[in-house]
Specification:
238 residues; alpha/beta; EC 2.1.1.130; precorrin-2 C20-methyltransferase activity; Precorrin-2 C(20)-methyltransferase; 4pyrrole_Mease_sub2
């Protein structure tokens, strides 16, 4: 019998991929990865030039991304069906083959693979290879430590409700904000209300060749999906 292996590819720079992930990517015949319809996909872009010539690719194209809000029951229905279909396809393939699923960052940290994992683990052997998170690559890109001493680090998503997001920002020492995209203006309002806007940084496409780092208050009107905001802790220092 085969199995399903999900490899964390790290924050974007192929050099930040683990040795194990690199070895598996170069050796595997069956490669699956998520992408938006009409796009190459970030995970696939990271491994460009690494796949063996006879590798068979399985692009898993999301049926929706931002067209329907995630709170809409239709979004949940469509996405659940999508994950179930692909879980069945991968389970079938893994009857006889080992199939590699690519995941940017770490698979268990806001990764889409989690939805396949919960459906696959009772059907087939599943292995997960961790990776450096995107947030780690982004706070390193700012050139400042994210936490000191007893600082509390909070990781939130900009898709949260405005009141709750503001509270979380106000109540922490150090902060990471994921999934910004269209929520940039809301995030600015929340940071302003919490008194943290002037100390917030925005990193676009962290560790990649087109990386951009700037103060969040100076950010452009539109930022890519692969953007992360950070507020550094200022706790106990030597």
């Amino acid at each position: 019998m085969g199995k399903v292996i999900c490899v964390g590819l790290g924050p974007g720079d192929p050099d930040l991929m683990s040795v194990k992930s690199d070895r598996l990517v170069r050796a595997s015949t069956h490669i699956a990865y998520f992408r938006k319809a009409g796009y190459e996909g970030q995970a696939r872009r990271i491994v460009e030039g690494m796949l063996r010539p006879d590798a068979i690719e399985y692009p898993m194209e999301y049926p929706v991304t931002t067209e329907i809000h995630f709170s809409d029951p239709e979004y949940n229905r469509v996405m659940a069906e999508f994950y179930e279909v692909w879980a069945e396809k991968l389970a079938k393939l893994a009857e006889t083959e080992t199939v590699l699923v690519l995941c940017e960052g770490d698979p268990f940290f806001y990764g889409s693979f989690m939805h396949l994992y919960t459906r696959l683990r009772e059907r087939r052997a599943v292995e997960v290879v961790p990776g450096i998170t995107g947030m780690s690559g982004c706070w390193t890109a700012t050139g400042e430590p994210i936490t000191w001493g007893d600082d509390v680090l909070t990781v939130v998503t900009a898709t949260m409700g405005e009141e709750e997001l503001t509270r979380r920002i106000r109540d922490t020492d150090a902060l990471v904000v994921m999934k910004i995209g269209r929520n940039l203006e809301k995030l600015k309002r929340c940071l302003t209300a919490a008194g943290r806007l002037d100390t917030a940084w925005l990193v676009e496409r962290g560790t990649m060749t087109d990386q951009k780092v700037h103060r969040l208050c100076e950010a452009p009107a539109k930022v890519p999906y692969f953007s992360i905001a950070v507020v550094h802790g200022q706790g106990r220092r030597p």
